[in-house]
Amino acid sequence: MADPIRWARYRWQRLISTEGREVSSSSNSSSKRYQSSKTASKHRIVIPCLGHFKEEYEKVSKLYMNNKIRTTKYTLLNFIPRNLFEQFHRVANLYFLFLVVLNWVPLVEAFQKEITMLPLVVVLTIIAVKDGLEDYSKYKLDKQINNLLTKVYSRKEKKYIDECWKNVSVGDFIRLSRNEIIPADMVLLYSSDLDGICYIETASLDGETNLKQRQVVRGYSEQVSEIDPEKFSSRIECESPNNDLSRFRGFVEHSNKDRVGLSKENLLLRGCTVRNTEAVVGIVVYAGHETKAMLNNSGPHYKRSKLERKVNSDILWCVLLLILMCLTGAVGHGIWLSRYSEIPFFNIPGPDGKLIPPALAGFNMFWTMIILLQVLIPISLYVSIEIVKLGQIYLIQNDIDFYHEKTDSTIQCRSLNIAEDLGQIQYIFSDKTGTLTENKMVFRRCSIAGQEYCHEENAKRLESYQEMDSEDEDSADAQYASLNHMSKRRGHNCRAVNESLKKKSLDQLSGSYPVAGRENSASDVPHAGHVAFSSRIETDVVPDTQLLEKFSQISSHSYQQSEDAVSKLSLETTYIIDFFLALAICNTVVVSVPNQPRQKMRHSSLGRMPIKSLEEIRQMFQRLSVRRLSSSPLPSIKESSSESPNSFVSKLSIFKMKLASPALDGAAQRAAEPHNPDSPENPQLSEELDMVNVAAGSEHHSAGSSVKGSSPLSKLCYEAESPDEAALVHAARAYKCVLQSRTPDQVTVDFTGLGSLTFQLLHILPFDSVRKRMSVVVRHPVSNKVVVYTKGADSVMMDLLGTASEGTKNSEMEQKKIKERTQKHLDDYARRGLRTLCIAKKVMSNEEYTEWLNHHFLAETSIDNREELLLESAIRLETKLTLLGATGIEDRLQDGVPDTIQALRKAGIKIWMLTGDKRETAVNIAYACKLLEPDDKIFTLKSQSRDVCALVMNKILEGIQKNTSAKKTKSQKLGNVSASPTTQAPAFSAGLVIDGKTLEHVLHDSLQNIFLDLTEKCRAVVCCQATPLQKSVLVRLVRNKLKAMTLAIGDGANDVSMIQVADTGVGILGQEGMQAVMASDFAISQFRHLRKLLLVHGHWCYTRLTNMVLYFFYKNVAYVNLLFWYQFFCGFSGTSMTDYWILILFNLLFTSVPPIVYGVLDKDVSAEILMQIPQLYVMSQKSVAYLPSTFWITLLDAFYQSLVCFFVPYFTYYGSDIDIFSFGNPINTAALFIILLHLLIECKSVTWIHAVVIVGSILFYFVFTLAFGATCKTHNPPSNPYWIMERHMTDPVFYLVCLLTTCVALLPRYLLRVLQGTLFPSPVMRAKHLDKLIPEEQREAIKRWKDDCVVNCRMEFQVTSGSSSSATGAVSEEESIASVLPTSKTPLQFCSRGGLVEEVSLSDIQDESGNTNSLSSERTVFLNLSKETNSDSYGSSNCCAKVSQRTSEEGKSAISLAGLNTEQV
Amino acid sequence: MLVSWSASEGFAPQEAEARPSRCPDNSAFKQQRLPAWKPQLTIATVLSTFFLTGAFCLSVGICLILSANSVREIQVYKCSDCSKLRENSYNWNIECLCSVDFKLKEDMLGDVFMYYGLQNFYQNHRRYVISRSDAQLLGRDVNRSYCAPFTTYNNGTPMAPCGAIANSMFNDTIDLFYNFNSSVIQVPLLKTGNSWWTDKNVKFRNPQSHNLSSAFAGTARPPYWQKPVYLLDEEDERNNGYINDDFIIWMRVSAFATFRNLYRRISRKRHFADGLPAGNYTFHISYNFPVTKFKGKKYVILSTMVWSGGSNPFLGIAYVVCGAAATLTGFIITAIHLKLRKKKTYFQK
Q1: Contact criterion met (CB < 8 Å) for A398 and B6
Q2: Are residues A484 and B12, on separate chains, in Cβ contact within 8 Å?
Q3: Under an 8 A CB cutoff, do B122 and A1130 touch?
Q4: Would you call A718 exposed, middle or buried from its count of C-beta atoms within 10 A (0-12, 13-18, 19+)?
Q5: Which residues, 6 or more positions from B345, have their beta carbon under 8 angstroms from its beta carbon?
Q6: Around Cβ A182, how many Cβ atoms within 10 Å?
Q7: Strand pairing class (A773-779; A279-286)
Q8: How many Å apart are CA A595 and CA A513, to the nearest integer?
Q9: Which region ranges are annotated with the description Disordered (chain B) (predicted)?
């Protein structure tokens, strides 16, 4: 032990010598946080937190941050100063502070000093309270996280004890169990998995739900027993904390100075979840804020709504106006003063008995005026906006339509200040998986040997899931939730809840390590929710009856089947068998069994060595066949099936004894019971019960038997990399072709008819995006032949099919027929939006295989361009396939997605789909959700160089423009003739599909503009294979360049960046963690909720807030101008004819609540109408309610009203003996009436709340002024309100003045509204009118409206974007395409739905394309795409010359050429 | 934002049994389905509002005009000699009397009020307005800071009352004589009861003392005043000091630069029981208040009052105009409506 210490010392000293000063300063510094980052500026050394390293540990690791996180902004102590500091960052607040200060200057003082402070204090207080509450919720969340529990190795107790997360520090050993969340970044030192692999789910980090493998540090993986921290004597040196998730560099230095490199494969990241691995042990290297997950959180993104920005600019106008008015006052005062040569009575000389000169007096007056007229800048506006937004958010959150029963979740508004932006969205950027779809892949249909099995029952089941089985899922969800909750609660008070802990330890002891909560709950779905892609809807497949029937034949046949019996079976039957074998085998699914220490089903592996020679293969084959015969499990299955349920229970009871846990006993029984009645329904279940027995029976001699180390299999779990694979395997299982186990060498499939088949796995040719397929090469145990199973996209697979070499003409015909029919089915599937896959197989003779193997071996061992050779090798293998069939998998769209998208589009919103998925899938889903319409022209942008990209986009643009202009002229001509609005032409609508690589080029500065031009002309854009970064860059691009309002919606962590960048981020409370939700401004549970959120609440919030803001401007201008007009009659001396208190309180109390109520509750059009007529959204989108003209009209009206309000009393009382404040009183009262009644005119709907508030305000005003007048004799020295109101109340003239003033002031506005309503009704007003109709009429009217709108909107669209055309049907679509692409020879692809294989025939292609391009290369590119052509015109782009060259040489390459062939040049 | 997964813990649904559903209340308020009155601008409501407003305004306007017409008012301005004298501020303490003759062509029936009018006197100047101490006028001697610079003399003697308003108090004396059959009868004038009752009885109080002069001991009159405050009305103890009506009225600063203040009321006794009969009258004015300094003018006004105030016809005219405008608009809208009814637009009813 002395050695390591010396070592550490040495390292430490070395470190000091290199970075001497910093370290020495850090060691005596108290500030850990900053010093640690300094010392670790390059490296960090992690020393285990153990007794014998204590000294070093204290020195090094203690300097690093611990795992406590704090995301709050304030603490109790610094709240007031810090909050004030923050608040005075607002210009408005500074302005008001300035006013307050100004009022303390005696020369310019206008009010009492205290009065001016009042509004500011009120505003600051309200905002401070709001900020405090927000911060408090963050604090609570932090506390919750910090107090989560985890198992940390304790030096004292020499074992793992529960610790709160916050107490974890660097160097601690942590032991995690399955489904636990990783508390800090740690290096994996031990995994219960024999291969030293740990699976983690990184959904919360990158949104990917598939499992990632992490590897135990080399050198530790061979350990059989769990690592003992006490014996760990190595040090870890790694890079200093950074936010790069994909990189981790470092090494472990053992005590004997051996170094072992560390990579990201060894790092478990904070926030991920351990899956399928019983126990892992790691040592913490980064903790708390230094973890990669935390460093990646760029902090909250403060957003300011568009409206608010606009308001700010208008406030600047108000400031200008104010300055103008003050200048008028200043100049006027100066002139007025200069008229007097002597000091008049009423002008008070200064202390020295002299008057200040007029110019200086004017200057002083300027500031006085600013104080006097300050209300013009509405301080209360900011507060009111905040309050209104809170109210709006409250109402949004309480909308019952956003409630999703299944998840018991409703909308969460996480950002309080951008609700009105929802009403102005122009672009929606949507994620696909989980956002548009449910992220549940479901096997839907298949076609085998040209025969379609449509799985009607399955379809019914899927439908019924919505209603009936949702309860089941609910219960599963609830369990999961309660489990979550439990762990949360446990963590919450840092003290373990005894029960659950006990249970946990019991489980731990027994070695079975399932989640306690789930086992306790009685459920027939013991396994839902916690493994990716395994919700019930995905796992259960109801077999097609027809197919099942055929299956039963197979079974009976195969009982007597000999080795060459396959040929006797009908062709179709072999197809079916092969099809399902392919489904079960051709994948990389990991089989696991829950509730069991060892997850991976392992079979005794036979040949670990790679097979290299034919001889070996032969040997192997012999061994294999022998084994199959000897270990045939058939008899035991038969035996056991008779006693199945009982035996299962008894088996379980054996298990139970081992566990010695009564709780589990009950659980087991309960778990067993439901299986019994279920068995007919779920055939595979009984199968599994049998399996239990088989396994049990062979338990003792398991080493030799097929299942090693197995224990009761309640259910097999499939962990797939992609959900499609899982779906296929589950489908196969439904037909009793159960994938039992998979090891690197062999696959075992339990086939009903044929028994358990163990395939020797020879090769896996993994999926890649170039080949778009994957293959497995296996040796068939029955026929002993080498068989290749391939599954892949139909676009590539169909070209790989070969004619059966040994087949007769008859079979050839048959094959062709199958191919045609399958293709038909595939097209049909695609039309239905299913994800299609082709399944094919190829039987190889041994000779063929050997030959290929040699090549492949060469490829594998070659050093130079190994990848390419491997690709080539794969392509060589995957030829002459026999088509078995096709599958259609449904990633079910969420409810109402197509409707929502259509409605949103009608609302004038452009929708982009940004997804990381493959192009085909993305396009399919785009069709399914009506993002793309069948008759849209789809441009696929796919090129590998920037230049080409530019050219292609230019071409498309040109084409579109030509097309539209041509159509336009035509339509104009037509329009002249017919002139009827009903000549509706199919608008030219285009969709753009672009992939990630191309996106990179396109996002380059030089191409951005043209790309945006192009996208503006397309009605939908689909970006596939886009990285999270690209997503956010795209959003930012559109947002900044097009100045458009953007909304990003997504559910996964990969959408976070785009959600944060967009003006409005919407997160979906989906299955992929909460990251998106946390980053979002609004979190909804279903995509369809977006419709109401935008169309209704967006519209409402926007119109309400704009109207309120405008009203506020009006109110303030109108009111302040009263004072201003008076200046003309008091020598511009800054006198206010209203009592100061009433003046200030007028805005703060008497007229503040009604506009707020108006802003929260006003409803111009009912929700129903807004939902039905999405076109209304355009009004708010174009900010019709708040155009600059509206603002100025409002101000003009305010001026007019203030003039009336001032001069009617003025002329009435002119020359009378009225005193100042008696004069001010009717003005003030009339102003109150005018302002409140103005609101009433503006109100679109008046509820009792409005009535109460308005009446209340008026009453309050009178009560206040009466009380004030009755009591205030001297409280308010300069003004003199005493008894004024009382006297006026008895004076008829007062009432007459108020009445007349109100009438005259409001008549024009009323008239304007009348004329607007009758003569030039806006769509909103028309819609408002619809509300009043009886339902039938309403329906009729809406229909009429829609018809009408189609015309209008199209015209409008045409005008605004100039892209769509209202061409007549005269131009055929083919023509339009041709005109779009006159000379393009680029890999521009035209997809056209409906199975049409469309070639973009280019005028000059044929002769030039020549024959250097082999036919096969042409065909392999894309089935339904344009012919790939050479082009001399683009010869300069030689970026992909290499690829193309190879293509032509090989003639078989399936590389879809994105570039251009240039060898001809 | 924060660590997301941990948030997922935080947001995980509550425990199933005890969990109240998060489903929002289906109440009218929360679902924004409150019954609402939606003001629809249909032709019926629009026209009725316009015509009703028009009719109402017209009728009120006519009433007002009629009543305003019954007001008799006479305004007199002369005394050029004295005003010239007062132009020079050195002559401020030279007494100047002038008399103005005028003729009432018809009787002024009812209560007749006598006002003095000032033109161009900016009583509403901000610093003038605040230059007073309400506390002092209540009899307390505190907080006279607003009075500056008319607070104290250089020797420290406080002014009573302080401030610019008080200092510049109107100090002409006006008497009215009726030339009845070549005999001159002084018209009896009431100098109390002209101010607001609340001012007189609540807002203005003399300092507490056994007599008035001792109450104001230690104070001095404002610089422009000719006599101290406790000698404002030597005849009537209850009209002296701060509670002098003339003073109270002056202290109620006027709203405009041209204004009138009530000076006296005609006591309806003997000849004047019904008001002022037609005939020749003379004002005897002791001219003290200089107006040329601020380029102003002085008037003496005799006027009667009706319920709608004085002789100002503006309100009535305004009502008539407003009513006419509303009615006219109503007709125009009717015309538009009739014209548009043929063209059936979407929702015209």
Answers
A1: no
A2: yes
A3: yes
A4: buried
A5: A1321
A6: 25
A7: unpaired
A8: 6
A9: 1-24
- State the Cα angle at A143 between A138 and A149, rounded to 5°: 140
Residues in chain A closer than 8 A to B29 (CB atoms): 1249
- The three-class DSSP label of residue A914 is strand
| Contact (CB, 8 A) for A620 and A606 | yes
Q: Which two tokens stand for residue A896?
A: 């109402």
H helix or E strand, kind and range, residue A754 = none
CB A281 within 8 A of CB A226: yes
Residue type at A743 in one-letter notation: T
Partners of residue B149 in chain A, C-beta under 8 Å: 348-351, 353
Q: Are B241 and B211 in contact (CB under 8 A)?
A: no
CA-nearest residue of chain A to B13?
Answer: A481
pLDDT of B39-84, one tens digit each?
777 788 889 999 999 999 999 999 999 998 888 888 887 677 787 7
Q: How confident is the model at residue B5 (pLDDT cuts 50, 70, 90)?
A: very low
Spatial distance between the Cα atoms of B9 and A482, rounded to a whole number of angstroms: 11
Q: How far apart are CA A932 and CA A503, in angstroms?
A: 53
Q: 3-class SS at A1032?
A: helix
For A140, the closest chain B residue by CA position comes to B10
Query: Rounded to a whole number, what is the distance in Å from the CA of B213 to chain A's nearest CA?
Result: 24
| pLDDT tens string B134-166 | 888 888 876 677 787 888 888 888 888 888 899
Structure token digits, residue A1011: 């790309």
- Sign (positive/negative) of CA torsion A1064, A389, A126, A373? positive
Task: Quote the CA–CA distance of A530 and A209 in Å, as a whole number.
Answer: 11
Give the tens place of pLDDT for each residue, A533-570: 455 666 677 777 777 777 777 665 554 444 444 444 56
Overall size of chain B counted in residues: 349
Q: Report how far residue A1196's alpha carbon sits from residue A1194's, in angstroms, rounded to the nearest whole number.
A: 5
C-beta separation of A1026 from A916 below 8 A: yes
Q: Which among A421, A387, A423, A230 is positioned nearest to A1080, based on CA atoms?
A: A421
Q: Record the tokens describing residue A1176, joined without a space.
A: 């209304």
CB atoms within 10 A of CB A1352: 15
Q: Tell me the sheet residues that pair with B99.
A: B284
Q: Which of B81, B264, B276 is nearest to B170 (CA)?
A: B264
Beta-strand (E) ranges in A1215-1280?
1246-1247
Parallel, antiparallel, or unpaired: how do β-strands A990-995 and A1020-1024 relate? parallel
Is A1081 among the residues known to form the active site?
Answer: no
Q: In degrees rounded to 5, what are phi and psi of residue A206?
A: -120, 0
C-alpha A695/C-alpha A706 separation (Å) is 9
Active-site option among A431, A724, A827, A1139: A431
Give the tokens for residue A775: 């293959």
Whole-Å CA distances, B258 to A446, B120, B276: 98, 5, 26
On the question of pLDDT at A634 being above 50, the answer is no
Give the residue on B whose Cα is nearest the Cα of A345.
B168
d(CA A1094, CA A1096): 6
CB-based contacts of A1287, cutoff 8 Å, min separation 6: A1222, B196
CA pair distance A1212, B238, nearest whole angstrom: 34
Is residue B301 a contact partner of residue B24, using CB atoms and an 8 Å limit? Answer: no
Q: Are B269 and B94 in contact (CB under 8 A)?
A: no
Nearest Cα residue to A992 out of A911, A891, A921: A911
> Token pair for residue B41?
């601008």
Q: What φ, ψ does residue A666 adopt, rounded to 5°?
A: -55, -40
- CA-to-CA distance for A1454 and A327, rounded, in angstroms? 78
| Rounded Cα distance, A713 and A688, in Å | 7
Q: Name the token pair of A593.
A: 């069994």
SS3 A1367: coil
One-letter amino acid identity for B347? F
